[in-house]
């Protein structure tokens, strides 16, 4: 078994879930599950996913404004998310002065905080924000887009399957 890849999910990775759930409430219709979260949920042997309460606050702020939902409804959506998905919520985080440096170098405050949380926790930062991705790559190699994460996990699965198959076959003998 390979070591799990530990990742930190930026707001844009999980927001679809909250947006769809809010739409279900407002429009009174059901939407399919979010593919990104299902991928994470279906790969617990290869992946440990984290996000923070800061991310959940960002999401709560957006869906309250975008969908005019009451705070108690938003709290229920967040509680469902925490219960339904295998994503660890960082409840206590430390920010370093790098956050201010990144903010002053033209990374938004929220993005600087997210990146700092991920790096302080020694997690790979996963984002779909192209601009943030390019800026973060100048700071660290521990940043990637979700589609790259998917490719890495699929490759790990293939290798593990291949090695388990090879265990059942003896080594070939050399012909003399």
Question: What does this protein structure show overall?
Answer:
The protein is α/β, with parallel strands linked by helices. 59% of the residues lie in helices and 11% in strands. The chain has a single domain, classed as Rossmann fold, CATH 3.40.50.1010. Strand 4, helix 7 and strand 5 form a beta-alpha-beta unit. Helix 1 (11-27) crosses helix 4 (71-84). The protein starts with a strand and ends in a 10-residue tail after the last helix.
| CATH architectural arrangement | 3-Layer(aba) Sandwich
Using only C-alpha atoms, the radius of gyration works out to 20 Å
Flag low-confidence runs.
none
Calculate the terminal CA-CA distance, rounded to whole Å: 36 Å
Number of strands: 5
> What's the total helix number?
8
Sheet of most strands: 5 strands, parallel
Strand order, largest beta sheet:
3-2-1-4-5
The amount of helix comes to 55-70%
Structural class: alpha/beta
| Overall tally of domains | 1
CATH class: Alpha Beta
Run of helices and strands: EHHEHHEHHEHEH
What do we call the CATH topology?
Answer: Rossmann fold
**What is the beta-strand fraction?**
5-15%
Average the pLDDT over all residues and give the rounded result.
90
Name the shape in a single word. globular
CATH homologous superfamily name? 5'-nuclease
């Amino acid at each position: 078994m390979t070591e799990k890849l530990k990742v930190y999910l930026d707001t844009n990775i999980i927001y679809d879930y909250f947006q769809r759930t809010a739409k279900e409430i407002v429009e009174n219709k059901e939407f399919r599950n979010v593919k990104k979260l299902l991928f994470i949920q279906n790969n617990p042997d290869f992946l440990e996913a984290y996000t923070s309460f800061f991310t959940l606050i960002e999401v709560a702020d957006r869906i309250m404004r975008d969908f005019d939902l009451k705070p108690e409804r938003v709290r229920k959506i967040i509680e469902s998310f925490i219960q339904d998905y295998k994503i660890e919520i960082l409840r206590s985080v430390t920010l370093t002065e790098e956050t201010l440096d990144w903010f002053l170098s033209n990374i938004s405050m929220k993005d600087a905080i997210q990146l700092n949380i991920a790096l302080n926790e020694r997690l790979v930062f996963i984002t779909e924000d192209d601009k943030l991705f390019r800026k973060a790559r100048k700071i660290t190699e521990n940043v990637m887009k979700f589609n790259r994460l998917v490719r890495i996990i699929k490759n790990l699965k293939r290798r593990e399957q291949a090695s388990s198959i090879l265990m059942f076959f003896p080594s070939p003998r050399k012909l003399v």
